[in-house]
Structures are given as C-alpha cells and as structure tokens.
Amino acid sequence: MNRVCEILGITKPVVQAPMTWITSPELVAAVSNAGGLGILGFNAGFETGKATPEETAEEMRKVIRKTRELTDKPFGMNVMTSAFDGAGFSRATIEVCKEEGVPVLAAIGAIDADQIHEWKDAGFKVVYRDMYPTVASAKAAEAAGVDILVATGCDEGGGMPVEATGTMVKTALIAEAVGIPVLAAGGIVNEAMAKASACVGAEGAYAGTRFVLSKECRAAQATKEDILNTSADELIVLTEADGYLKWRCTPHKVAKEAIEENNKGNMKPSTGSFFFGMLKGDMDAGINTVSSAASLIKSIDSCEDIVNELARGYGC
Ligand SMILES: Cc1cc2nc3c(=O)[nH]c(=O)nc-3n(C[C@H](O)[C@H](O)[C@H](O)COP(=O)(O)O)c2cc1C
User: Fold this and answer.
1) Contact, 140 vs 111, CB < 8 A?
2) Does ligand 1 lie within 6 Å of residue 133's CB atom?
3) Index of the ligand 1 atom closest to the CA of residue 187
4) For residue 18, how far is its CA from the centre of ligand 1 (angstroms)?
5) What tens digit of pLDDT does each residue of 268-294 get?
6) Which of 18, 100, 111, 173 suits 78 as a labelling partner, its CA being 20 to 30 A distant?
7) Domains of the chain
8) H or E stretch including 194?
9) pLDDT tens digits for 145-187?
C-alpha cells in the first residue's frame, strides 16, 4: 500500500495544500470525500480576519465542526512552527485541534524538535513543509519524528522558497536523503507532473494551484478565469519581505508595481491584499499567486476528478 495513504488513513495520496482564505469546509471536505486529504488554511472560510489568537481559534473551531458535518474522512489544519508563530495564532488553534480531534497538522516553518514531540505525543500525524527546504532540514525533521515531508521547489504557488531549485530536483534530493515518505509540492497540476514526481521519489502530491481551479474552491470566479487566461510567459516573480519570500503572480497592477519597486532595490514592496486579490477577485487590490505550471491547467474541475487524476500519477 502507498505509505502516505497508510499513514494518513486515506485512499489516494493527494493532499490539497493549505491556501489560507481560499480554503473552506466545502473544499476540504470535497478533497477528503474523494479519498485525498483536505487541509484547512489560516482563516479558512472566514469572512473577516480576527484580532486575537483566541478569537481566531474559536472561529476555527466552527470551521472544523462545519467540515466534520461535510465529511467523516480525515482532514488537516495548517499551522506555523514556533519560530514563525510569534503572536501565538497557531498555538491557540492547535489547542482547538486537540479538543476537536483534528487528526493531521500540516506544519510550515523551521523545525523545532520539542514542538514536534509535543504534537506527536498529542496524537497528531505531522506533515511538515520547511519554509526553506534543504537536505539538512529534511533530515532534522525526520529525526524529530515528523510522519511525512513536503519537498517544495520554486515552482510552487504562494510564498515560495527563495532558493532557485525546482520541484523535481528538490524532491529527488530529499527523497534520497530520508526514509519517511515525501510529497512533491510545486507544479503538480496533472497526471504527467504527478508521474514525473513519482519517478524521482515522491509518494504523493501536495497540490495548491490545481485546487484553486476546482469547482469547490471559494476563490472568485474572476480569479480562476484570470489563471486560465494567463500564459506561462506572462507570469511575474517578485521578491518581498526583505528578500525573504518570492511570489509568482499573474500580471496585474499590484504585481507590476512590486516588480518596479524590486528593480529600484526595494525588496519589501507591497503585495496588496490576498483577501481581495484571490478571494474577492479584485486583481487591482492584491496579487493572484500561482504555480509556474498553472497554464498546464485547462479547466475548472471537481475535487473528485482532480484527486483521481493526480492519484493516477502515483499508481493509485
Ligand atoms: C494561493 C496560494 C496560497 C497559499 N497559502 C499557503 C498558506 O497559507 N500556508 C501554507 O503553508 N502554504 C500556502 N501555500 C503553498 C501551498 O501550501 C503549497 O506548498 C503550494 O501550493 C504547492 O505548489 P502548487 O501551487 O504548484 O501546487 C499557498 C499556495 C497558493 C497557490
């Protein structure tokens, strides 16, 4: 049996990667009901941001309960590791996940072995994605006890690693170095890309952009159509947060202004509001961030069809 499926209690080794506002109970449940693993992102299903970690966690409790009403299958919650969770939003949400019996934490950040031990002792399965994935960080994560590693290349949508290694090479390097299963993240948008990642050692997909273009994703229709109508050659890659993060975006006002700022030496340009750019479809107010492989996606499909297609790449 596929090890990712065995560990997560699912039937298809396809994880819908967390994508903050544009995830929701409907998206997550649709993926989990199709046999994959849906993951709630930060502010999943929220209509507005909450001011405090406690308010956020309580709102997340409602979202978790709504997800439970829609599926009896496993699903996960996205959290930050300690180094990236200064205000404690993830800490508060993890307490709620414990109380509500969410089985999987999909963690992003830098490895903190004590924290991984705590999560494992609390009974969570841990899928771990290092913000700056290297062979060394993968080995450290394995030693700390994570169950499944995510190998992220610079092909991914969202805030991507600054290092310029693509998904296939990153997956091959990490799969060779560790004994636990590896999911490929970045550009896994169809069966061929899934199969390519399987050839270099991935045992499943951690796919974001492909699920933006799903019927169940709550991203605005205008945002989805913008992705379908943009060619690979038009995408803009900009640097943000003092050179700390990169984003690949469709070519609109905020992204164009940000790249001009980068060209002037400003490595901390505004990227606008993701809430407006992707959830509300106002591409003048925020970025629409996608994978380098986005133009290989030809249609908006059901999560069930997407899960089935990607799973075929892993022989499932
Ligand atoms: C629109 C968008 C938003 C994202 N937001 C998050 C997030 O909130 N947390 C996170 O851990 N990863 C986030 N990611 C990264 C994904 O979890 C995943 O690593 C990535 O989507 C995989 O690459 P792909 O988009 O090529 O499939 C986001 C990705 C996208 C496309």
Assistant:
1) yes
2) no
3) 26
4) 6
5) 999 999 899 999 999 999 999 999 999
6) 173
7) 3-218+297-312 (3.20.20.70), 221-279 (no CATH)
8) helix 191-199
9) 999 999 999 999 999 988 899 999 999 999 999 999 999 999 9
